[in-house]
Structure formats: structure tokens, C-alpha cells
Amino acid sequence: MYGYEWTSQYGIFKLSVTSKLEKEIRPVFKEELDFFGMQEYWNYPDTTAPLLWAEGIRRYILNGECVAEAKGGGFYTKPRIEVFKKDLCLKAIDLDLLWSVNEGLIKGLEQKAVFFIRRQYEEFSGQGYSFVVAFSGGKDSLLVLDLVDKALPPDCFQVIFSNTGMELQGTIDAIERAKKHWSNLRFYEAASHMTPERTWDEFGPPGRRMRWCCAVHKSVPTLLKLREITGDYNVKAVVFDGVRAEESAARSQYGDVSVGAKNISQVNCSPILKWNSAEAFVYLLKNNILLNHLYYLGFNRVGCTVCPLSSKWRDSLSNSLFHNEVKTLLGKVERYAENQGVNANRRQLYIESNGWRTRMGGRNLPNGGNRVLENIINDNLIFQFTTSPKQNWFDVAPLLGPIIEVSGNRGVQLIQRREFSFTVDNSDAFTVKYAPYKQMDRYILSYLRGVANKVAYCIGCKACVVQCPTGAFTILDSGRIFVREDRCVHCGNCIVFTGGKGCLVAKSLSTTLGGNGMNLKGMNRYQTFGFRRIWLEHYFELGSDCFSTGHLGNRQYDALKVWLKESGLITPANKGEKSGNPTPLFERLKTLGAYNPLTWAVIWSNLAYASTIIRWYMLKVPAGETYEKGDLVSMLGDDYSHSTRDNAITSLLETLRHSPVGSVLKQGIPIAIGNSYKFIKQGWETPDALAVLYALYLWAEKTGRHAFSLAQLEQARSSDESAGMDPVSIFAINPAAFKEILQELALHFEKFIRVSFVADLDNVRLSTEVSSLDIIDLAIE
């Protein structure tokens, strides 16, 4: 929340509203200096107090001056220390003085957090929620636990440590010390019924975009333990967690209260969301609750022995100091690299270069690949299984609706009040048929596919169990799925929570073809160049004459022509003498200017129809998450060469970086990480009304429909072949807020749009007398 500035006192910084320094900071102890052999350069006492600080993890700071810096490092490489100041005499930092300098601000933060915790307790306790502190043994959960202990009576909450089985021993020891420190609290330990060794083999190694491990080994066991403690299968929980916005670009977008973010029965509350590491350490050091010894060794964060989100710094410390604890899972990463065809002499470099962390599917994994093939023959939807099923179809199918008739391997099932006949054939390859296909809407199709994936992949990890609102879905001790049909309301929560795959294992192991099924031909048309604001400004100023000025290079002009054509600003090459000329849209947007967000919203809307890579990004890359370039390249699948995919993603990301589309329209906010970037696809929270109206008229012009329902717009979001792209997909608008946006549009632009929402029926009508160009004229007027 506050920045900090260095004072003249040894090792003392002062928190301040006006201070500019806001880097992640951590205390440096004797144990860390000993590990790096710093006694050769510096003199320092044998003390348990910090000796100096590290900014940005690696830069050792004494009174505001960088006196040394750690370089390099990884699982197989120990960082080297570049010393800038030798012969220093370090001394213990006066923690009482550090506290006295910052006491006022820290107490203010503490009081605000305590008030927040009490307010959430008052709000949710009346709704029957139980209260949990999610405890990991790390500094942030230590801080949250101390704050909750101050805010609530001990009998009002439980403390649950989710033992993933992948923790370093230092964390396990910290848990025991915490139990003694807070001896009045009720501590419980939750753990998956499956070992990490098994889950890593079954799911494949986790990746940055494939973090199945958090659900299987942390959030799910926590909620199951709470059910056990309370004896309430339908228990709802408020979980106080130690999430801090400073930790990542993604977490900086979190709210302090998240309902249903982990699962439908859970509310996550983050009392220290806005605290930074400087504030956290001042509080912890003063209260003498820095109980995890790993921080003394140089760890900036604790957690699993091998984690796809950890830094090279932490990887190096983990494997150097705790090799025996790391080697099992690191060995699985090494085998994964081998399965990917990485040559033995490059394997360590591949791992240290984060190649394994970008894993998106099961390609080249021993148990990876698509286990269900789908065909449509004679009005039959046919699922053919390429491996023996893991579950019994008759056990899982009741999730869709009641089976009302069974005769041998045939039956009739009622799904969404419609009757479907089915056949389960195990005579050769396991095959399931459902008919009639023509009566299946996209929801029924999605749910059937989800059930097929559960039958093909489910290993009983229990991630689905906590998604069930009625206690109908359960996993027996044998690992078999059991559905209590008298409780099942066929809501589909246990299917849709994985993003449509129906099973967490299926999501982890299935392979992606052609960018999740899309035809990506022509995605690489831009020679790695993005559509830049200064290029649009150049074109607005000179029109077609800009191409002969030599202001840009030939390759840049070639890329610009493609972007302009796909944006609708120049006529295509097949228009004879008019080819390459400015369009009427150009004249209108030129009036608005290259800095105007509406200009770029219109361009982005047109690219939704004309640019393969932009359309893919809109349809296949979920909003609300953070992506690195490697993540997006992997998400495109393997049907195209790596260079083709890499070039296409480079063009996309360059557009996000160098135009208002990224930061203003929030389609991919660039966050600098060293020499590279991460991108937060946040979505346009407060879209320009005319931008949404323009996108709706584009929909009408492309589909021929000037009257349509919200359901038809929604259906387009899940269809790669839809002629139309709705505003929710184009601008990554929150679907829940879209209805309100339409109502606001109808209120202010009655001539152009009318909406009717009555009970479960809705209708949107656009004027047939109006074009998308007319909408831009509204802005010009």
C-alpha cells in the first residue's frame, strides 16, 4: 500500500504515502550470506536479526545502496554473487527502531485488516458460513493468521493447513512452531487421498496454465476437511487467505472478496491484498512470528518443492539446499523433457529456460492424448473410446438426467426434458451412441462430452466433488464415481468447472489441435509486426501517400497494409483501381483520431472478423488471467510450426503493447518483467457505449440478423464457425454485466436499439435503417 524510502539509520526504511520505492523487499539473514560464502567479502555477526535487505529478490541493499547482486541460477545452477562493496562490516538491524519509525502506518493497516475480517464475519455468519484460515506456513498466511486471531474469537474459525505432500521440511517444521505459537487455536491438516507422485504421473507435470495441483492438493482437500470437521456435507466456507496483489500481475487484479472463485461453496477473503512485502515483514519481525526458517536461507516465498510458478532464484535454493526433497518431482520434469524429444545434453537448459512450464496438454506424455473420438452418423452422436474407460457410463450418465429405461446395453435418458435413446457397446472398442442428434443444443452436447471425458479419464481426484451444490456427486473409496440420483439437480457444475472438458485429468492430458479446433490458416500475415498507434497516426496524416515516404521499412509497410485491410481502412487488393484506397470508415476514424479509444475499439471489432489470430485470441484465450508469450504459443497447438505460431503471437502481443487495445481497452495489459512482458487479459470493464453498439451492428451485418436473443449471442461465443462475433467476446466484457449494458444502450439510443427482457425471454432489435458506419457518425456528431 505504501512506498518506502531509506533513512540515515542503519538498515531502516520508512513507509510513506509519497515514497516512490515500491519494489518487493525481503530481509537478509546470516544463513543466506553463509550459503553464498559472503564471509569472504564482508564481516557480520552471528545473529538471528536481519543484516541488510534485498530488493527485487536479488539486489542486496544497505542504506539504499546496492552493495551486491545475485546473477543467474536455476535448478542446476547456483546463482553467483557480484559484489560491489567489499570489506563491509554489517550489523544487526534494530527491529525496535524499524517498528518505531513505521508504527503509525502499520497499526493503521492492522486496524483496517481487522475491521475487514470482522465485517466479513458479520456478513457471512448470518448466512450459515463456516470460517477458515488457509494456512501454508508462509509469511503471508502467518500474517493473516495473526490478524484473524486478533479479529475473531478462537472458536469462530478453524485453521487448516493443506499439506500437499510437496512441501519442504522447513515448512512442515514451521507448521509445528505455529501450533505452539497459537496454542489456543484449532489446527487441522488436510491432504489429498492421492500422493503427489501418483498425481504427477496421472495428470502430467503442472504448468503455468495447467495448475491442476492447486485444486487437487490444496483447495479441494481444505473444503473436504471442513466438511469432515463440521459434519455438514453442504458446508459453505469463508476462507481467509494470504493473497497479495504485489505477488503477481494476475493477483493485482483480484478483489478482496471473491465469491465462487475456487468452487461454488467457497468465498475467498483477502485481508492483506494491498499489503506489500515491506509492510508484511515490519509486522512479522516486530511480532516475532517469522517462524519459517526458509526465509533465513534466502527464500522469498515458500511452497512446493517443484512449482511451475516459482522463480529461478527459488529453484536454485531448493535444489541446492534440499536436493533429496526436490529430486523426485524434478526427476518427473526431466522425464517430461525427455518425452518432448529434448536432447540429453540440452535437457537441463530446457528445464532452466522454463520449457516445461508452458505445458498445455498431453502431447508426448505416455498417457496423454485424446481418449474420446466423436462422430455424427445418421443423426447419432457417437463417442468412440481409444482406451479402456476409467469409469462406468451408467454410473456417470445420471449427471445429465434420469435414465428412465434400460434394456441390456440400451436405454432412454431424459436430458433437459427431452428424451434421448442411447447404446453402450463394449463388444470391440468401447462406443456410446446418443440420438437424435438434431435435438441436441450446445448445452446438451457440451454436457455429453463432459460425461464422456469423465468416463474416459477420471481417476477419482475429487475435484468435481466440491463443485456439487447438493452432495449428489461423490467419489467412493474405490475411486468409482457415485451419483446420488435423488439429490442430483443436473446443474452441470461438476462438468463445466473445467472449462468444458468435464474432467480435470482430461483438461490436463487432452491434446489441442489447430488452436482448440479453429482453422488457423493465415494467422501469420504480419511479419511479426503489430498494429501500432504511431503507424495509424502516420496513415491518418498522409493516407495512401504514406507508403511512398520511406518513413517505415518495406516489411513494416507490408504489415501495415495487412492490418489496415483487415481493420476495414483500405480496400482489398481485388477491387481494381480502388484497391488500397482509403475506405469510408477511414474517413470517419481519421476524424476521431489515432489516440481515441473508440477508434481502436472499432478497429478491434473489425479484426474480430478479418484477422485469424485476433479472432482466436478473442474466442480461445479466457479473460481474467495473465499470459506469457510461451503460454499463448502453446495454446495454438502443434498443427503449425513453432516459428509460424511464434510469429503470429508476436504480432498479436506487439499490437497489445503498442496500441490502446492493450492498456486502455484492457485486452492485454502489458506488464514488464525484466526484458520481457506478461499480459493481463482483464477485459473492458467500462466499455464505450458506442463501441458496443458498433459491434452489435457489425453482428447484424455479418449474420443478417437485426433481431436476436442473448442466447444466440452467447452461442456464438462457443462456436468457431459462427458468422457473428458478439461484444462479450470482442471486448472480453463480463457476461453478467452485458445485459445491463444493453439496457443502458436502449435507454440512450432508442432509435438504434430496443431490448425486451421478460421472465426467461429476451429480445434485442436493431434498426434495419442504420449501418455500423452510422454509429461512428454519432460519435463524430
Protein architecture, described:
It is built from 28 helices and 29 strands. It has 781 residues and is an alpha+beta fold. It folds into 5 domains: 87 residues, no CATH class; 188 residues, Rossmann fold (3-Layer(aba) Sandwich), CATH 3.40.50.620; 139 residues, no CATH class; 165 residues, no CATH class; 92 residues, Arc Repressor Mutant, subunit A. The protein is globular, with a radius of gyration of 29 Å. α3 packs across α7 and α19 crosses α20. A hairpin with an 8-residue loop joins β7 and β8. The strands form 8 sheets. It has a 6-stranded mixed sheet with strand order 12-11-10-13-15-14.
Question: Biggest sheet, open or closed, and with what strands and sense?
Answer: 6 strands, mixed
What is the CA-based Rg, rounded?
29 Å
* CATH topology label of the largest domain: Rossmann fold
Beta content: 15-25%
What is the rounded distance between the termini? 43 Å
Number of strands: 29
Residue share in helix: 25-40%
**What's the tally of helices?**
28
Mean pLDDT: 90
Low-confidence stretches at least 5 residues in length (pLDDT < 50)? none
CATH superfamily of the largest domain: HUPs
